[in-house]
Write a structure and sequence with these properties.
alpha/beta
């Protein structure tokens, strides 16, 4: 009984620690509204999100910002990504300052890309889908004879607020699916976009990667901090999973795990998906 009590208290500690960090992140992000320069205001929001994520990523990963490149250097319309989670063990970053977060990053090393927005709008969803679609058309640099098919960086959207007061449970997810359909992108189940967090409304994430039974799920709560906590847990899990896959290993057969198993799942429900979007 004493052991069980201690185990529960440790679980509570991790969750409460993350919730406290999430509350601070939200408060700091709201303070940035006082800054008039749009570019600086946006960059500060990216930094607070990166600082929230960094402790829960694989220890060899880094949160950076900049441009993804491939060996053939195809031109991209979106040349600046808000937050990239990179694994320098896979390819060296190209940094103007060795200690700085800004630079140019070979596709091989990029595990996740995260877009941060103050307020999500239909145009914001379109921009996110367009930028994410460009990345999946980039090519990895493979060694001669390597026939392994590697998954592209997972794209994740974080927005603190929405431009719509609509309280329909999956309204934001419907807008995301509409942007996917407008772009004639593959089904939302294809996997290159893996999570959408509208902090004031909830978290939608793609589950079943390792079991090959993909489905979109909605973790809804009225608590903004808990929405952000569960996003951090998902990003942590995704980063460990992507690291193993880039090394050609089956992550389901490894002890490598993110913070997800230590965070209560809360109320999760599947979001119905058809070939063209939501039901």
């Amino acid at each position: 009984m004493a052991f069980e009590f201690c185990r529960l208290k440790i679980d509570d500690y991790i969750f409460e620690r993350l919730r406290a960090d999430a509350a601070r992140t939200i408060a700091v992000a709201e303070c940035e509204d006082a800054i008039q320069h749009v570019g600086i205001r946006g960059r500060l929001r990216e930094i607070v999100i990166a600082n929230l994520l960094a402790p829960w990523l694989p220890p060899f990963c880094r949160c950076v910002t900049g441009m993804i490149i491939e060996a053939r250097n195809k031109p991209r319309k979106s040349t600046q990504d808000d937050i990239l989670v990179i694994d320098p063990m896979l390819a060296p970053p190209i940094l103007p300052n060795v200690d700085g977060p800004d630079g140019v990053f070979p596709l091989n090393s990029v595990l996740l890309r995260i877009e941060v927005k103050s307020r999500i709008t239909p145009d914001g969803f379109r921009d996110f889908v367009n930028a994410s679609s460009e990345v999946i058309n980039m090519e990895f640099s493979k060694k001669p004879g390597c026939n392994t098919k590697f998954g592209h960086p997972l794209s994740i959207l974080v927005a603190f607020k929405s431009d719509s007061p609509n309280d329909e449970p999956d309204f934001e997810f419907h807008r995301f699916c509409a942007a996917m359909k407008e772009r004639q992108s593959p089904s939302p189940l294809c996997g290159f976009i893996s999570a959408i967090c509208i902090v004031e409304n909830g978290l939608w994430f793609l589950g079943g990667f390792e079991e090959n039974t993909r489905s979109w799920c909605h973790a809804a709560t009225l608590c903004r901090e808990e929405n952000l906590v569960r996003l951090v847990a998902k990003i942590s899990d995704f980063a460990f999973m992507e690291h193993a896959q880039r090394q050609g290993r089956d992550s389901s057969q490894s002890l490598e795990v993110g913070i997800g198993p230590y965070i209560p799942t809360g109320q999760i429900r599947q979001v119905p998906i058809t070939e063209n979007g939501t039901d």
